[in-house]
Amino acid sequence: MIVPVILSGGSGTRLWPVSRKSYPKQFCALLGQDTPFQETVQRTRLLGLEAEPVVVGNREHRFIMAEQLRQVGVEKVDIILEPVARNSAAAMAAAAFWQMQRDEEALLWFMPADAVIEDHEALGLALEQACEAARHDYIVTFGIRPTRAETGYGYIRQGDLLDGQENVYHIARFLEKPEASRAETMAADGQHLWNSGMFVARARVFLEELKRYEPAIYEAVAGAVQNASGDLGFVQLDEASFSRSPSISVDYAVAERTDRAAVVPSSFCWMDVGSWDAVWELTPKDGNGNAVRGNVFLDHARNCYVNSDGVVATVTGVDDLIIIVTRDAVMVSHRERAQDIKHMVSRLKDEGHPEAEQHVRMYRPWGFYESLIQGDRFQVKRIHVSPGEKLSLQKHFHRAEHWVVVAGTALVTRDDEQIMVRENESVYLPLGCVHRLENPGRIPMTLIEVQSGPYLGEDDIVRLDDLYRR
Q1: End-to-end CA, the chain
Q2: Which residue ranges form the domains of the chain, and what is each CATH number?
């Protein structure tokens, strides 16, 4: 049995400002209607895999993952939540330990949640070849034959053919992301492959090698799984144990050190959607090489990618630029410097700009909210509550709130009262009152919230009762 394991813990800073820590790239529909996370899940169905996927992701994204799975009809799935980020080796170990409780000889197909793959027939063939080698206790990765000199990917140097295997080779060496001249040489010599980050291995074999080379990761994750708890259908890893794990990628921890590493050279179309230059390459273009998304107008522009979220964006007389416009941020970069955007995000974070990690729209298990206007001692928000959902029972020490329902119906708890507030009606919540918002209807409910007071931070919330155990 092949168990697909989807690794969804990345932050995607090179795709800022669309991708941010609060809502990273794997959950953003950058190329079509479905997100990379959803496409990865559906890929396992297209290949006819019978086992339900295991998802490993950030605890803060648990309800986003569950909702996106629901949207594509996947409900029987184990979602393992990382309490802190500890890189791919620990994430893969968590899935392997979890599967060991059921079948230690099961084949695990580890795959990042943010890659684009075309030609599923060729992918299926490569998976069969990888699984055959994995049944002989190899840890097998997929190497993609380069189509260009790419500096944003790691590379694998292909070694000798494995005895008794078809199209599976020893790995001679892993190489870091190269400089441009080195990338050109490796792309042309026929001996190097792009490192896809996908692996196939038995749970037992992967953990044996992890214990051999990184016993600290092994012990920490073993404890985190052993002491895991169930929470609203999720698997919550024990935070104290998991936090003790070193933060190391699987390449450094295992793949570059084990004598069981192997690679399947593959020619299916694969791309790590890790930068805006990659998005430009995958997006249909006009006659001047421009790719656009959103409300964009171009004039005498060539080979640009422009993405605007609602705001009208006009671009004139420029070449080879990436321009991203959101409600609270604008990013402009030369396409050749697309990999460097993460450095700017680090600067924003270091200087205390919330835009580095947070969107204007913040998703919650009950729906979402977004700030519309913020001034001295007041803030206006839009709050969207899904049918049947409710916010926590709470109070504030520093602000009063006025709610105006603009769509649907709200059931409002205010101290000892329960008030039904319908469209175009409002309710006032004085400072310090205990209150809760609920959508009792069958359609989404939207209201406008006006906050007033000397402090309007999100941490001014005292939760007295919460369905989502926050």
Answers
A1: 36
A2: 2-272 (3.90.550.10), 276-350 (no CATH), 361-465 (2.60.120.10)
User: Could you tell me which of 236, 178, 171 has the C-alpha nearest to residue 469?
Assistant: 236
Taking only the tens place, the pLDDT of each residue in 52-79 is 899 999 999 999 999 999 999 988 899 9
Q: Is 83 exposed, middle or buried (0-12, 13-18, 19+ CB in 10 A)?
A: middle
The length of the chain, given as a count of residues: 470
306-332 burial, b if ≥16 CB within 10 A, otherwise e?
bbbbeeebebeebebbbbbbbeebebe
Q: In what order do the strands lie in the sheet with 367-375?
A: 361-364, 367-375, 378-385, 445-452, 400-407, 426-429
The residue whose two tokens read 């570059």 is 256
Instruction: List C-alpha distances in Å: 171 to 30, 179, 258, 263.
Output: 33, 21, 10, 6
Place of tokens 């964009």: 296
- Residues in the chain with pLDDT < 70? none
- Whether the bond between 17 and the residue before it is cis, its omega within 30 degrees of 0, is yes
- pLDDT confidence of residue 292: 96
How many whole angstroms separate alpha carbon 214 and alpha carbon 196? 22
Are residues 301 and 317 in contact, defined by beta-carbon separation less than 8 angstroms? yes
Supply the DSSP string of 119-136, one letter for each residue: -HHHHHHHHHHHHHHHTT
H-helix or E-strand spanning residue 313: strand 305-316
Whose structure tokens read 């079509």?
32
Q: Hey, CA dihedral for 59, 396, 385, 442, is it positive or negative?
A: positive
pTM for the structure as a whole: 0.88
Asked if 421 and 410 touch (Cβ cutoff 8 Å), the reply is yes
State the Cα–Cα distance between residues 68 and 220, nearest whole angstrom.
30
Give the pairing type, strands 155-161 and 462-465.
unpaired
Q: At how many degrees (to 10) do helices 36-46 and 120-134 cross?
A: 70
Query: 371 and 410 in contact (C-beta within 8 Å)?
Result: no
Q: Looking at the DSSP assignment, which residues form a beta bridge with residue 54?
A: 5, 78
Query: CA-to-CA distance for 121 and 119, rounded, in angstroms?
Result: 5
19, 28 in Cβ contact below 8 A?
Answer: yes
- Would you state the torsion angle of the CA atoms of residues 164, 166, 169, 175, taken in this order, to the nearest 10 degrees? -160
> What is the spatial distance between Cα 135 and Cα 205, in angstroms, rounded to a whole number?
10
Tokens describing residue 138: 């190899």
Whole-number pLDDT of residue 12: 82
